[in-house]
Amino acid sequence: MPSxxxxxxxxxxxxxxxxxAALRIQTNDPLKIRQELDPILSNHLTGSDAKRKTIDVLxxxxxKSADVSSTLHTQALELFQNAYVSTDHxxxxxxxxLLYFSLFRQIVxxxxxxxxxxxxxxxxELKKRMAAEFGHLGALDRSVERISxxxxxxxxxxxxxxxxxxxxxxxxxxxxxxxxxLWLLKCILFAHPxxxxxxxxxxxxxxxxxxxxxxxxxELREHDEFNVYREGGGWDMVVLKxx
Length: 243
Description:
Largest sheet: 3 strands, antiparallel
Shape: globular
Strand content: 5-15%
Helix content: 40-55%
Structural class: mainly alpha
Low-confidence stretches: none
Mean pLDDT: 93
Radius of gyration: 18 Å
Number of strands: 5
Strand order of the largest sheet: 3-5-4
C-alpha cells in the first residue's frame, strides 16, 4: 500500500525525475544519488533546505518505493532503461509516485473523478477534498499545492489563465509499450484497497485519467502476473498476483 506519510512537499520537475531514475539505475546507494542530484537542482533551487527536501521526495519515489514493492520497483528500472520516449518515462514516474505516496494517489483519483463531470477544477477544491480524506494536517495544504504544481509541469494538470484553476487532460498520454501499460495497471491494482476488480472497472479507474489504456482482457489473461477469472453475473475479475 502507498505510504501514509504526506511527504510530497516539493514541486518535482519531470527532468529531475528522469535524472533520478537514471542515477538509480547506476547505483543503489542513496547517498551517491543525493550527491549527484545536488548540482542538478542547484540550477533551480538556492536554499540547502529546499534542495534537501526536494531530493528526499525524488529518492522516495525512485529508491524507497522498493520498500513498498521491490518487484514493481525493479520492473520500473528495467522499463526506464528501455524507454526512449519522454512520455513513456512519465508513466513510470506517475506509477511510482502513486505507489509510494497515498496523498498523490488520492489527488489524482479526485482529479480523475472531477474531470469526468467538468472541464476545470480549482486548487481550493482539491484542498477541501484532501482535508476531508486526511484531516486538517499542518503540511497538507502545501503538499496539495506542490503536487498540483508537479502535475502541471508533467502536462497532466495544465494551468488556466485564472490563478489556482486547472484544466486536466484526459487520455492524452499513449505508449506503444504493452509492458508499460501492464506495469501501470499493476501499480494501480497494488495500491487499490480491493483485492479484485472487474476488468471493465480497472481500465476506467479515475486515477488513470491522463492515460489512454489499450490493453485488452485477452492480453491481461496472457500475462502471468495477473489472475483473471469469471465471477457470477459474468464479471471478468482481475487480481494481481503477489508482486
